[in-house]
């Protein structure tokens, strides 16, 4: 009997706790990992005794209806932050989650966000429900930021934009749409990718497979492997692409390679599905980082794009993002949007307003917009400085002759160090450096002052742990 079926049988028991235990005692009762069998007449001490009701009540208190629920493992990324909090060593460093920190390693609220929030207070804005598709001013701003306001897809109203619960929720909504309207269609995801992609498609019951992406030999892109795998996939598959700053590798295709990727996707009638979680964070330029998406849109292709404002506006906990579906006609876009709303309604009804207003205020106000761009450049610049200092420290300290220059070729928040699981464990257990077990470190959580310490940890883990 599986845990699930146990839960189902428990759940279908009558609502009175003592009765449900009695009923279940007639057969096999599963307790966590094992199961007990009872013979109603002989073995069961609860039955046929005078004190039946008193004992069964005691048993009811002890045996949870959720006995069949097993403990889930900690999340490979967010679980790292929990472990970090529990460590009391003052040298500890959290390079797990991709969250920007100042040079003092403190969380950062952008000045433009504070200004936008002040505006909201001054205007006395209310907290009424948003429509299912979200805040109209946000949806307009987010699509224009992504495609450019003068892009034909915007002018011709060919984009269905729905506000989502940040990047994750937007991806999940798109996955629900794929499951409903493209049953059996496969999503191709890069190997490796952000760990939650697999969870999202699994939960939505959308089949997925991987395409080659990272080549450990060159510590670069396996472009030929990627093209071959996209070509080999069944016609009409969805191809999940990281718009910029690929997570976890920090390796992006060149503009020429993006053209070739678009060629093969078009050839195979696949549907590109972009995850844009770092617009403005990779290069410091919002436009440059949207280049891949715009290149596909310019070819007249239909595509999906999930957006997030967690990183570029530091709105992690506001859960603000969007799903955009570019269609070949305004009519198709209107129908797609109506169905996205239909999928959203039973899941969370309508999205939260606060982050949407912040984005709309920042993007919609030329002064705030320019201030945002400057702050984003500052954040991207700090990450680049830390990247350079880490490379310099590794090169100066490591006498083995190992070439660490791959670190400088990677972009965005992360560096994919090439450390394996055992080496990553050593980073945490010995050096108190918290990171994901795939060897990824978030440079956004590193300061210039800590680069040398980190370099010592990496060199020790790399050379002394196999
Ligand atoms: N897509 C990619 C490629 C991401 O890296 C992330 C965040 C998201 C989407 C979703 O972010 P939202 O906050 O839902 O907009 N990845 C970070 C954050 C931690 C996490 O795993 O959620 C990371 O550290 O990889």
Automatic annotation (TrEMBL):
One GO process term, biological-process aspect: amino acid metabolic process
InterPro entries, alphabetized: Aminotransferase_I/II_large, Asp_trans, NHTrfase_class1_PyrdxlP-BS, PyrdxlP-dep_Trfase, PyrdxlP-dep_Trfase_major, PyrdxlP-dep_Trfase_small
Catalytic activity of the protein: L-aspartate + 2-oxoglutarate = oxaloacetate + L-glutamate
Keywords annotated in UniProt: Aminotransferase, Pyridoxal phosphate, Transferase
Top-level enzyme category: transferase
Named cofactor requirement(s): pyridoxal 5'-phosphate
Residue span(s) of domain Aminotransferase class I/classII large: 91-458
Enzyme Commission number: 2.6.1.1
SUPFAM superfamilies referenced in this protein's UniProt entry, alphabetically: PLP-dependent transferases (SSF53383)
Signal peptide span: none
UniProt GO molecular function: L-aspartate:2-oxoglutarate aminotransferase activity; pyridoxal phosphate binding
Note: In eukaryotes there are cytoplasmic, mitochondrial and chloroplastic isozymes.
Protein's job: Important for the metabolism of amino acids and Krebs-cycle related organic acids. In plants, it is involved in nitrogen metabolism and in aspects of carbon and energy metabolism.
Family: Belongs to the class-I pyridoxal-phosphate-dependent aminotransferase family.
Summary of subunit composition and partner proteins: Homodimer.
Protein's recorded name: Aspartate aminotransferase
Source organism of the structure: Quercus lobata (Valley oak)
Organism ancestry: Eukaryota, Viridiplantae, Streptophyta, Embryophyta, Tracheophyta
Gene symbol of the encoding locus: LOC115974884
